[in-house]
Design goal:
Elements: E1 2-8, H1 19-28, E2 33-40, H2 43-47, E3 57-64, H3 77-95, H4 108-132, H5 136-139, H6 142-153, H7 166-179, E4 198-201, H8 209-218, E5 222-226, H9 230-236, H10 245-265, E6 268-271, H11 274-282, H12 303-306, E7 319-323, H13 332-345, E8 350-354, H14 361-377, E9 393-396, H15 406-411, E10 415-418, H16 427-434, E11 438-442, H17 447-451, E12 456-458, H18 463-474, H19 477-494, H20 497-513, E13 519-520, E14 549-550
Parallel strand pairs: 1-2, 1-4, 2-3, 4-5, 5-6, 7-8, 7-10, 8-9, 10-11, 11-12
Antiparallel strand pairs: 13-14
C-alpha cells in the first residue's frame, strides 16, 4: 500500500523531532511505499539537508512553516466575504472557551457544538484555499485582526480574551496564520495525498493538519501517532515576559480546538503510552479509536552490557548513574540533595551525571548552577594530607575515553537514577532496562507504566524518599541483579523496534481494510469490476498488474475510466507473501 507520512520539524531532515522512529518505521516496512510530506520549522533545518532515504520512499515533498507560502492569490469581493465568514466562526470558537472538552465546564452538547463550529470554519477555509488560492495574505490582513477583536469582545468570550490589546491581537493572529499555513499547500490533489491509501501523521498539531484536510477533501483515512502530546507541550512551554495572559489563553484555546478535531477525524490514534492516552482522552479522543503503541528502541546496541554474566555487569557497585539531557525538568537539584543523604549512609558512594545541556537557552545556566551546587555540597575529598582531592560527583559527556558509548555510560554503575519532575516517555529508563540495570525513578509521566515492577518508584521532589530507595538497593546486590534481569526481559518484550514496526503494520492493514475503496477499477465495457482490488494487493509482492484511478470521492461517472488489464502470470515462490 502507499502511505503518506506527514511530519513537522523532523524526518527526513537531519535535525528535529521524531526523525529516528520515522526512519526505523519506513525502513522496517519495506513492503509498502512511502511518500513523505514534511514541514520544516527553520531555514537552518532545511540547509542541513536530509538523512539517507531507503528505496521504498517514492517521493518527498517539503514546505516551510517558518515563512508564508505565497501562491499569488488575490481575493475578490466574494472570496473576501467567504473568508470573513469562515474566519469569524473560527475566531468565535477559539474565543468561546479553552477547547478541551473536560476543561470547559459546559454541558457536552454545548462543547460539541463549539467543536463543530471550529471544524466547519476550518474546512471552510480549506475549501476557500482550494477554490481561490491560499489564504496566507488574508490571514495576515487588518481584516483578520478586526474579526479576532470582535470575537474577543463578544458576550460569552473568555474573560482573559476581553483584556487583549492590539499588540496581543496581532500576536495571536500571526500565530494562527503560521499554524494554518498548510492550508495554502498544493498537496491536496489526486496525484499527491489523494493517491495515498492512508495518511500517517507523526505528531499532532501542524503535522496532522494536512492529513485532516486530505481526509475532508479527498476521503483519505488518517492515522495520528503522538509520542509526546502536542497540546501538552504547548501548555508546558515556558511563557515569555512579552507574552500577555490573553495571548496564552487564546493560543491554548486554538490548539485545544485543533487537537479535538484531529482526534475526532482520525480513523485511529496511537499514543506512545498511557500517560499520553489520558491526555488524548481529555482532549476528546474516542477510546475506541486509541491503540497504544510503545516507542521502539534498538536493543542490539545494549546487548553486550545487558547479556553480560550476572555479577560482572557492574563496573563499580558503589556508583549511581544519571543519563540524559540536563535541563530544569530533570530536577538534578533534588538529585544532588538526595545524594548528600546517600553519602551520609554510604560514604563510599559516587554519582556520575552523564549528559550535555539541552538546546533550551536556560539549560546551560542550569547546568552551571548544578555544578556549583555539587562543589558546595561535596568539597573535594582526599585520603590523606598529601593526596589530591576528588569530588564524588562528576559531570561527564558521552564520547570521551572513559564513556565512549551510551551503553558504557549505563554499565559504569550499579544503579540508574531518574529524578525528573516532568517526563513523557522515559527513553533513558528503557535504555537502562535494556542494559539490565536496576533503577530508582520518580513517579512522573509514563514511568510506572514503563518500569512495571522491575524498579523502585518514589514521589517527585522528595530527596529523602529518593535517597532511601537508592540506599536500599545499594545494600542489596542480589535484589539489584534480580530487578535488572526482570527489567531487561520487560524491555525486550515491550519496547523494541521490532514490536513497534509489527504493531504499525497491523494497524495499517486494519485501517485500509475498513476504509471505503476510493479507486475504481473498470472492465473492458467501462463497468465497475467486482472485486477489482484483490486481497493479495495488500501483502508484499506484485500480484497484479491492474491500474487504478484515484478519485476525490466514489464518483463513477466523472473522469475517463481506466481499463482493467489482464495481469500476466507471475511466478510465486513457496512461502511468498506470508
Amino acid at each position: 500500500m502507499r502511505i503518506g507520512l506527514l511530519t513537522e520539524g523532523g524526518y527526513p531532515y537531519v535535525s528535529g523531532d521524531a526523525g529516528l522512529w520515522c526512519d526505523r518505521l519506513v525502513r522496517g516496512l519495506g513492503q509498502h511505499e512511502f511518500d513523505i510530506y514534511a514541514l520544516s520549522r527553520t531555514e537552518h533545518q532545511e540547509d542541513r539537508g536530509w538523512v539517507g532515504l531507503p528505496p521504498q520512499v517514492a517521493r518527498v515533498r517539503t514546505a516551510p512553516l517558518w515563512t508564508p507560502y505565497e501562491d499569488g492569490a488575490v481575493y475578490g469581493r466574494r472570496a473576501r466575504r467567504r473568508f470573513a465568514e469562515a474566519y469569524g466562526e473560527l475566531a468565535a470558537a477559539v474565543c468561546g472557551g479553552p477547547g478541551v472538552p473536560e476543561a470547559t465546564g459546559e454541558p457536552a452538547d454545548s462543547a460539541g457544538a463549539e467543536a463543530d463550529r471550529f471544524a466547519s470554519a476550518l474546512y471552510a477555509l480549506a475549501e476557500l484555499a482550494r477554490d481561490e488560492g491560499g489564504p496566507a495574505g488574508a490571514l495576515r490582513s487588518e481584516d483578520a485582526v478586526r474579526i479576532l477583536e470582535r470575537a474577543c469582545r463578544a458576550p460569552g468570550s473568555l474573560r482573559s480574551a476581553g483584556t487583549a490589546r492590539v499588540r496581543d491581537l496581532l500576536a495571536v493572529a500571526a500565530h494562527i496564520e503560521r499554524a494554518l499555513r498548510p492550508l495554502s499547500l498544493d498537496w491536496y490533489e489526486d496525484d499527491a495525498l489523494g493517491s495515498a491509501d492512508l495518511c500517517h501523521a507523526a505528531a499532532g498539531g501542524a503535522a496532522a493538519l494536512p492529513g485532516l484536510l486530505a481526509r475532508h477533501l479527498l476521503g483519505v483515512p488518517l492515522l495520528v501517532t503522538e509520542y509526546g502530546v502536542h497540546l501538552r507541550a504547548h501548555y508546558l512551554a515556558p511563557a515569555t515576559l512579552e507574552e500577555a495572559p490573553a495571548v496564552r489563553a487564546l493560543l491554548a484555546a486554538f490548539h485545544g480546538r485543533l487537537a479535538t478535531e484531529v482526534y475526532r477525524a482520525a480513523t485511529l490514534v496511537t499514543p506512545g503510552n498511557t500517560h499520553a492516552r489520558r491526555w488524548q482522552e481529555r482532549c476528546g479522543a474516542d477510546r475506541a479509536k486509541l491503540r497504544t503503541v510503545h516507542p521502539g528502541m534498538e536493543a542490539a546496541r545494549f546487548a553486550d552490557v545487558g547479556e553480560a554474566v550476572p555479577g560482572s555487569r557492574c563496573a563499580d557497585p558503589d556508583t549511581l548513574v544519571w543519563v540524559g539531557r540536563v535541563e530544569p525538568a530533570k530536577d538534578l537539584i533534588s538529585l544532588l540533595h538526595s545524594f548528600a543523604e546517600i553519602r551520609r549512609a554510604e560514604p563510599r558512594t559516587r554519582l556520575r551525571i552523564v549528559g550535555a545541556a539541552a538546546e533550551a537557552p536556560e539549560a546551560a545556566t542550569y547546568l552551571a548552577h548544578c555544578k556549583a551546587l555539587a562543589a558546595q555540597l561535596f568539597p573535594d575529598e582526599a585520603d590523606g594530607a598529601h593526596a589530591v582531592g576528588d569530588n564524588p560527583v562528576s559531570f561527564e559527556e558521552i564520547g570521551g575515553p572513559e564513556l565512549p558509548s551510551l551503553a558504557e555510560a549505563y554499565a559504569c554503575g550499579a544503579l540508574v537514577v531518574l529524578s525528573s519532575v516532568v517526563e513523557g516517555f522515559p527513553v533513558g529508563l528503557v535504555e537502562a532496562m535494556l542494559c539490565g540495570r536496576a533503577t530508582v525513578s520518580t513517579d512522573v509521566g509514563a514511568v510506572v507504566e514503563v518500569i512495571g515492577g522491575t524498579g523502585l518508584v518514589v514521589p517527585p521532589r522528595n530527596p529523602r524518599a529518593l535517597a532511601e530507595a537508592c540506599v536500599t538497593l545499594l545494600r542489596d546486590p542480589e535484589r539489584r541483579e534480580r530487578l535488572g534481569a526482570a527489567a531487561r526481559a520487560r524491555a525486550l518484550e515491550l519496547f523494541t523496534v521490532e514490536q513497534n514496526i509489527m504493531a504499525f503494520h497491523g494497524i495499517y492493514l486494519e485501517i485500509v481494510s475498513h476504509s471505503p475503496v476510493r479507486r475504481v477499477v473498470v472492465d473492458e465495457a467501462g463497468e465497475p469490476r467486482p472485486f477489482g482490488t484483490p486481497a493479495e494487493a495488500r501483502v508484499p509482492g506484485r500480484w497484479t498488474g491492474t491500474r487504478f484511478t484515484t478519485e476525490r470521492r466514489p464518483r463513477w461517472a466523472e473522469g475517463a475510466p481506466v481499463r482493467a488489464t489482464v495481469p500476466p502470470p507471475v511466478p510465486v515462490a513457496v512461502g511468498e507473501g506470508t
